[in-house]
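Translate structure to sequence.
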């Protein structure tokens, strides 16, 4: 049974889920970007509202839940990036995404991690597409929204390559969002299970 202290925090998680759903069904990069910005804002508001609701209890700041979030904000590339991207968007009006144009990818038949998008070559001033080399196949791809590096206080935060000790360097923006949401949902669930909501 849920209590009353974390009502506002639960609403922010619900809004973050809605933004993620919108991201998944977006018609193109512009709509994805709007959903992404909404998503990162809602995650930050979730944690801000959690801290605000529980700040009256001195035990809260020594709880394992707070320590887990604070540690992740410092050392987990994904969680740190989500927070810094929200800061860059809301306070510095900095773009947090770029669009990778659609077209064709040449994909290795033996290892799908090796991809080359829209390869071109210029010979004597003439630019032409490069056909797939042996062992590669050509696949049509849509334009994709990609994370870009963001800056805060003279520090640059690159798009995350790891989360919770796992390689996520080839993740889509949707996967980054799913992983971020799962992290913060696990915090909310743990807080509720430990009685912080009553």
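Result:
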């Amino acid at each position: 049974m849920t209590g009353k202290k974390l009502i506002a925090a639960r609403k922010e998680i619900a809004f973050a889920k809605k933004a993620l759903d919108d991201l998944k069904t977006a018609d193109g990069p512009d709509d994805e970007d709007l959903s992404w910005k909404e998503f990162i804002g809602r995650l930050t508001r979730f944690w801000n509202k959690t801290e605000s609701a529980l700040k009256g209890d001195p035990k809260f700041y020594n709880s394992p839940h707070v320590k887990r979030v604070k540690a992740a904000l410092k050392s987990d590339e994904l969680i740190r990036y989500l927070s810094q991207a929200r800061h860059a968007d809301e306070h510095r009006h900095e773009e947090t995404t770029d669009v990778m144009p659609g077209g064709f990818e040449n994909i290795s038949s033996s290892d799908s991690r090796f991809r080359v998008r829209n390869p071109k070559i210029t010979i004597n001033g003439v630019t032409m597409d490069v056909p797939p080399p042996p062992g590669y196949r050509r696949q049509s791809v849509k334009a994709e929204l990609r994370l870009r590096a963001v800056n805060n206080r003279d520090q640059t935060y690159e798009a995350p390559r790891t989360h919770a000790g796992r390689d996520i360097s080839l993740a889509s923006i949707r996967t980054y969002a799913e992983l971020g949401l799962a992290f913060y949902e696990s915090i909310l669930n743990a807080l509720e299970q430990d009685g912080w909501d009553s």
